């Protein structure tokens, strides 16, 4: 703690200028401390109350950005000893590769700072030993990480005068993670000389990993809870503790920080700047191109070439998210973190290693402020439930006394235990909602649900697949004399057989109709859970018409293009082209979607005027291979500034 | 029982060895030569014996001969559709590894070929298997299941003997379930008898699934009786799933469109039997089983659900009544579309 009376107005002003990078911080702290000329800021300092100056205050003080304003100032002393929703500094797991050397920054044992690239510096959270110019000769300061698990999972670097960094506390190497005891360094404490304390010391903190990572040798999540508690104290040359006026018992200054959790990207995340899909199917790509040209010209459409990766199910083979910490001016700093699926698609007899999605992410997603994180334990583990179309984010909501300001993860059946444990350990989007998707061949929540912005109190509505609505529409069209109209005209099933089929034929097919009823019943079960968990009203649910067909014991899949399985961000939605029957010269299903979703009818879109509705042809490349537009695309962006996870009481 | 060239060679060699062991008179030599030729033909001829699911020789002779004749004639007229059936790819890694869930699936591909594919599919099932060289067991089973399902959905009496034979044969659970459902879809008197008889065998679960596809009042009564008596939640789940399919309102409407309006009345009676059984048994099990019951009740979608709930109110606790009321309200809301 700072000694009382240390907060002069001039110092405060200077402190407000304290920003990262860290080297600057210590200098300014020191300058501020030296500038204590007795000028009053009207505070409670004893030496500012007039009379002869007393002895200079003793300063045994360590600071982080406890008040989350992006600056490290004496104001950060308040509440620093206990991390909570109202206060507490955050730090990042340094999982990106800022210098592009192919080594994760949190694993390389150094801070990668060069004259050309100092990005890694910004991934360290500042930790400052406040300057005490009058620190007595021979005194020694000690910074101690009080928890062994924390020490094994974090690293604290000291900023040196030449701009480089030195590891002074924490650890290097696995240090027990995964049963690997290799620990190149394991330093619970660091000492600082009186001379260093006189000038102040700039430190930086990073975590080596996120919380909730399951260890292969125990099958249990690594028990570290993400908290870092630091004890800072000073001893005189004779070994006696130096106490301060405001901490006369032992002089110890305590500080607690928390590692930033991984946050799942969702449809309503506002920072989408990149959309991914494979480049295999020109008609699919072309539809997306046209939609972006019209409604999202600034989004980068990353077309994955076949020589880069041979898996067109872009939603499935990696999951996008990010981690962030508070930054100055209400901004956040962090990194995108993608998580690979636990299985790849190796050709017959090929070694699976090169086909694991992690290889794709290592090559294309691990760079500055962008990371790849393997959560699963074993290559080629899990199944279709572990594809990320089965893991989604219900946007922000409150239901009674349950508040999920940053959304809540939802997943369907299956899912590897280590993935579940990881999601739960992040806490801010947990506990997850789970629904039964085992009735689907593919088994993914995105085959039934999607989330779109709405100009309502909640800010979004749920799209849900509805065979019941599809049949109602087909029956009405038949009643209107359109029973002979065909859908799927010009499209072929696998093997080349024409898919064209009339409304009459569809409605007279007892199997198709029975499957539709079964699909509806299964979706009703899923929907009942989500309604109860979220507190959704009926008018917050938008039914999207399509039927299901069944493949024996394997389960069901959308019969006509599953139009709720769409790409959504901002006000844009790209549906699979439904290739519906021509009703009065227009595709009946398409017109329905445009009328209901692209108009003010349902108060959709941020302004309630409707979504910008687009379609792309996914029949050949996705629909007949058991998926749709959402399955074939993915999206991400930088951390969202108004997602202040640190304010969540979790 | 899949004919492969090496099988044929072995058979021929064996017969040649046998002929050498007998005194080689011209007459006997001629007899064994003819026998060898006949047996080799029975192995090698595509329309003679070995399908992917059964050996045609297990079929009743008359049915076998009749089918063989129809297949031969149809094949001469429509060779392309036979080729299409034999060249489906959904069970082959080169295609299914591209599926969103990379599992072998061939039913949709076959089903979409339509009724023209019936005889080629029966040939593949019982007389002449498409090549399965290099395929794994689950891939072969996927082909079997796909063929059986696609044949069953055509509801063509010509498939009766083959489907019943497959149902009687010993295959994986998936194949046997598919066969039972196909027999159920055909829903002949003989098929219903076979399914009923199988309720007392190890094929009980398959038979229940089969009954769920047999849209007759009799199968509804059978399933309702089973639901009343079953002692296990897992079997109750199976029965409820079958009842949902059997009582599906939309399926009966489709049948009425296809077969005539008399089926609507029949459907109404079936759906009532099923809804009554599901409601009166609703409280017997909890948790997942009730969920299955609710799903089945939703599929049956009977207009008079509230009345049924009232009739059985004394058997239902408050929570159960509330759960069923939710379904009734939802059905009423949807009926107003």
Brief write-up:
Chain A has 650 residues and is of the alpha+beta class.
Your description of this structure?
The complex is a heterodimer of chains A (650) and B (337). By secondary structure, chain A is an alpha+beta fold. Chain A is 19% helix and 25% strand. Chain A contains twelve helices and 38 strands. In chain A, the strands form twelve sheets. A six-stranded antiparallel sheet of chain A has the order 1-3-9-5-6-7. A five-stranded mixed sheet of chain A has the order 2-13-12-4-8. Chain B is built from 19 helices and no strands. The interface between A and B is large, with 52 and 54 residues.
Q: What name is given to the CATH topology of the largest domain in chain A?
A: L-arginine/glycine Amidinotransferase, Chain A
Largest interface: A-B, 52 and 54 residues
- Stretches with pLDDT under 50, minimum 5 residues of chain B: 1-48
- DSSP summary: helix tally of chain B: 19
Query: What's the overall geometry of chain B?
Result: elongated
Give the termini separation of chain A.
Answer: 27 Å
Topology:
The complex is a heterodimer of chains A (650) and B (337).
Chain A: H1 9-16, H2 22-34, E1 62-64, E2 89-91, E3 125-129, E4 140-145, H3 148-153, E5 154-159, E6 165-172, E7 185-187, E8 189-193, H4 194-199, E9 201-207, E10 214-215, E11 220-221, E12 227-235, E13 253-259, E14 263-264, E15 274-278, H5 282-295, E16 300-304, H6 314-317, E17 318-319, E18 321-326, E19 332-340, H7 357-364, E20 370-372, E21 391-394, E22 397-399, E23 402-404, E24 408-411, H8 417-426, E25 433-434, E26 449-453, E27 460-466, H9 467-482, E28 486-487, E29 501-502, H10 503-507, H11 510-534, E30 541-545, E31 548-551, E32 555-558, E33 567-569, E34 572-576, E35 582-583, E36 586-587, H12 588-597, E37 612-616, E38 633-636
Parallel strand pairs in A: 2-13, 15-16, 19-20, 24-25, 27-30, 34-37
Antiparallel strand pairs in A: 1-3, 3-9, 4-8, 4-12, 5-6, 5-9, 6-7, 10-11, 12-13, 14-18, 15-38, 17-19, 18-19, 21-24, 22-23, 26-27, 28-29, 31-32, 33-34, 35-36
Helix pairs in contact in A: 1-2
Chain B: H1 5-21, H2 26-44, H3 61-77, H4 79-86, H5 93-96, H6 107-111, H7 118-127, H8 137-154, H9 160-168, H10 173-186, H11 189-198, H12 204-211, H13 217-229, H14 233-247, H15 249-259, H16 262-280, H17 288-300, H18 305-311, H19 318-335
